[in-house]
Write a structure and sequence with these properties.
Layout lengths: L1 H108 E4 L2 E6 L5 E3 L2 E5 L6 H9 L4 E2 L5 H9 L5 E6 L8 E2 L13 H5 L7 E4 L3 E4 L6 E7 L1 E2 L3
Parallel strand pairs: 6-10
Antiparallel strand pairs: 1-2, 2-11, 3-4, 4-10, 5-10, 6-7, 6-8, 8-9
Length: 247
């Protein structure tokens, strides 16, 4: 009986020991396996997160660079726009000023005719009147030398075609000036330098017709035409056509 009891007890103890051993070994194996699997996931997941973070950083950097570039471009474009606006504003002011100047020039230099406006101009130091330019000298020369001086300016001694022109000249001179009328080629025949006939122009006054004009074959003007010796030195008046303005 004791052997059977011991044997039975031993069997029960032995079975319990095996069962306990089995239960004890099973958690150990699971505990041993679980950390291995977790470590494997952590090792495998770290490079992925690093790659995603790096990509995000690159994208953010590119966006920042793009924003900065756009800001610089916008700033430069704005500056150019402001510059163009100011430039156009200055051009508009200059154009308006030119229009005003042109208007003043037209009023001073243009004559209205049946065919429209004719605008003329003279070089500095010359007087404009009725489509002609006049130069009143400050120096004094003989009649021949005065004519040569006019020729150097592509002009000639003035030809007084009518009384209006004569009055214009008289208002601007205060002493005798040589004009383009002479009696040098044929005695008693007065001729203008451009071959205009004396018979169609203003004449000597009756007073000057009566005075002695020996050796006085050239003519001056102060208040009226006057005979004078061609070798005397006088101031002179040059005349030439005014320049047409392209208006």
């Amino acid at each position: 009986m004791e052997e059977e009891g011991l044997t039975y007890a031993q069997l029960i103890f032995h079975n319990q020991s095996q069962t306990s051993s089995s239960k004890t070994s099973l958690p150990q194996e699971r505990k041993g396996q679980a950390p291995t699997k977790v470590k494997s996931k952590e090792v495998n997941s770290n490079p992925l997160w690093f790659l995603l973070a790096f990509i995000f950083f690159i994208i953010s950097l590119l966006l920042l660079i793009t924003i900065i570039a756009l800001a610089i471009t916008y700033s430069r474009a704005s500056q150019r726009l402001v510059h163009e606006v100011l430039k156009n504003s200055n051009l508009t002011k200059e154009q308006n000023q030119m229009k005003k100047t042109l208007s003043l020039l037209k009023n001073a230099r243009c004559m209205t005719t049946g065919s429209g406006s004719q605008c003329t101009s003279c070089q500095v130091g010359w007087w404009l009147y009725s489509g002609s330019c006049y130069y009143l000298s400050n120096d004094k020369l003989t009649w021949d030398d005065s004519r040569k001086n006019c020729s150097n300016s592509q002009s000639d001694l003035v030809v007084v075609n009518n009384n209006d022109e004569k009055e214009f000249l008289k208002k601007n001179i205060h002493e005798s000036h040589w004009i383009g009328l002479a009696n040098k080629e044929k005695e008693g025949r007065w001729q203008w330098v451009d071959n205009t006939s004396y018979t169609t122009t203003p004449k000597f006054s009756s007073y000057y017709k009566r005075i002695n004009r020996d050796n006085k074959d050239c003519v001056t003007l102060i208040t009226e035409f006057d005979y004078d010796n061609c070798n005397e030195t006088r101031k002179w008046i040059c005349e030439k056509k005014a320049q047409q303005l392209p208006l």
